[in-house]
Amino acid sequence: MSVAVPTWHATRPPVELTSFVGRRRELVDVRKLLSSSRVVTITGVGGVGKTRLASRAGALLERSFPGGVWFIELAGLNDPELVSATVAAAFGLQHQSGTTPLTQLPDRLRDRPLLLVLDNCEHILDGCAQLAHSLLEHCPLMRILTTSRQPLGIAGEAVLELAPFSVPPDGAGSPERATLLRYAAVALLEERAQAVDRTFAVSADNAQVVMRLCRRLDGIPLAIELAAVALRFMTTEEIVDRLDHRFQMLTDGNRTAPTRQQTLQNMVDWSYRLCSTAEQILWARLSVFGPGFDLEAAEVIGSGDGIGTDEVLDLLVGLIDKSIVTAERYPGKTRYRLLDTLREYGRDRLAELGGTTIVRRKHLHYYRHLAAQAEAEWFSAGHTTVFARLRAEHANLREALAFSVSEPGESQAGLVIASSLRFFWLSSGHVYEGRRWLDRFLALSMERDPVRVKALYVDGYLNAALNDASSGSALLEQASALAAELGDQSGAAYVAQISGLTALFNEDPARASALFEDALAKHRLIGDHAAAAYDQIELALAVAFLGDHERAAALFRGCPAVKETYSEQWMRSLALWAKGIADLLAGNYRQANAAELESLRLRLGFHEQFQIALCVEILACIASADGDPARAATLFGVSQTIKKNVDASLAGHKHVARLHDHYEAVARSSLGDETFQKGVHHATQLDFDEAIAWIRNPGKAGEPASSRTEETHASVLTPREREVAALVAQGTTNKEIAAIMVISRRTAEAHVEHILTKLGFTTRTQIATWVIQQKTARRCD
């Protein structure tokens, strides 16, 4: 009995009708993998360019395969049983009685050195896997390259996970055109847009909106190409404004492309149909998250109503295999994410299932618990982990807060989250955001309870930090009155503490001192030892501003947080920062500098940009006071740059602003305006890591120590070795260097060994430090 086989033809890779953009590194990776593995699968989300990469790789590899490169498109085939028959027909094999295509193909192709490219295998995975296994077992000269949203899952398979195109990061500022076009997503948008509008070009005028568009489309090539087509009848700004409805907008694709690639909707529908019913439900539920989530959150929010908690991991793995969910691995943890496009699609499906409110409520209360737990663990040895998790979950906290605002009866949960994040708002630089949420929830929730007391004093603190003393004082007065009415001892103690901070910020150290004394006594009475330690640090600082240096020194000596053995590092960094100021005021410059450098070291581990800027600010004041105005000028410039990057200022910290004004004037007077400004300008030429490396380097005062290193070593290395050194500094392995530079791994290793020998180093870390020092020296020349 014969089998009806569609008319398919094996061909050379399809002729490219548009330019090939990006993917240079991935092409190298495909070639390397095929040299060491006989079957390679390119996986990735729909529309990411798997077919295009396989096609280009096949075209470039034709000379390496005397038997030819055979490209077979399988998207239109729906029966896994017909995969072998389809491929056999493509090679011109006729069905013979008593045999099957699966036995015919190995016999025909056994001695042919060819590359077989199977495109779009995900919906007929079993048939493709069976065929590939049989061919590899019997055809030793054959290599197989497949594209699929899910690996074949056979022995010996190497998988290349194709990421979306690179996009400019948030906070990229306004890069020059040449810099922007280095991002593949931007280059593709310009290239395709010019096909419909010859006048379109990325420029300073449209850079911001182009960056937003590429980020919102996740760097997915198909989505970007569809957006470029839309530029025939819409501006870039209009497209960005309508991206919340992208499936209705991006519908005018290439009519000659496969149906699934003609619109964004078709592309994602194709992926959705590949999923089991349970996977589809989990996809919909995961859409309530922000850009990322961890396994614990997925288990809590994705389970229920037919999906057990213990089933979530297996379903999540299924979604990862189908390139719906991306796993992002970090030291000690894994986070997962849905691209914006897939998340929006999932939200539409969740709405169709009628589960949006239920699932979002679960999400809200999960993150309410997380915020409360993080606050309880803030002053602990695990603070770094706590802060890192809050940073990672910031988008989810926003999602939870937004739902709490809009959902009747849930404003109290939002009030708990927003007030529990007091230290996070301050440490992360999101003070404005914290105040905005608290203002909204205080207006929505009228319950008179300790939760409201806390929200009032936290909001008062944020207002004070933003230099709105009158609003802050009014909120603190309300908190004090309500705490007294409720008999809330903890609330009363914190009101005293924050009132003291407000007074200190506004240069009233006498009042601040009295309030910190009161807060310290109250916190000791109720056994809140972490809060009491905080009170003592701020009391010592207030006393130092009053000029009582002896008592300030005694208070710091009695403060456990100053000691090296103190395990809670966030409190210790605060104590050392305050002690540095006290030592500066007392004229103990060497001690002050040591305290601030240690505080800086600790704060770098927390990634608290504004707090880091405050450390640099005091280091600048110390340098000025200690007779090193050149170093002070550069340090003031570094602090200024960091504050600008996080949109922060010293306006709410008048006690620090006064120090800044005084010691900047001293340094400026010593150097003269022109030289002082040159030092500040030098700082703006350094990126963050280079600036910190310079600050912590014990070189000649006011001069980046790397300048001497450059003079000693720069001319020793060849241009090729300097290129290798730069890659080492980026953390690139010898194997990766070899791939990037298209050299053998042994040659890459030899280059690294020569660099170590010439520079007199023994580790790669020393090379990385040297590269940073060179950059610093060049920019400070």
From TrEMBL:
Instruction: List the Pfam families.
Output: AAA_22 (PF13401), GerE (PF00196), HTH_77 (PF25872)
Transferase: is it a keyword of this entry?
yes
Q: Which residues form the HTH luxR-type domain?
A: 710-775
Q: Which InterPro entries would you find in this protein's record?
A: AAA_22, HTH_77, P-loop_NTPase, Sig_transdc_resp-reg_C-effctor, TPR-like_helical_dom_sf, Tscrpt_reg_LuxR_C, WH-like_DNA-bd_sf
Q: What is this protein called?
A: Non-specific serine/threonine protein kinase
**Domain of life from the UniProt record:** Bacteria
Q: Which UniProt keywords apply?
A: Kinase, Serine/threonine-protein kinase, Transferase
Organism per entry: Saccharopolyspora spinosa
Give the record's GO biological process terms: regulation of DNA-templated transcription
